[in-house]
Amino acid sequence: MTTLLGIVTLAGAVVAMAFRNLVHCALALAVALAGLAGLYLQLGAQFVGFAQVLVYIGAVAIVIVFAILLTRGGQTPRQRVFSATWPLGAGVALAVFSVLSWIILSSRALPLGTPPEPAAATGRIGDQLMTKYLLPLEVLGLLLTAALIGAVIIAMRERTDE
Amino acid sequence: MSSLHSYLITSALLFAIGLGGALTRRNAIIVLIGIELMLNAANLNFIAFWRFGPHPEALTGILFVLFSIGVAAAEAAVGLALIIAAHRHCKTTDVDELDSMKG
Question: Which ipTM value was assigned to this complex?
Answer without folding.
Answer: 0.89
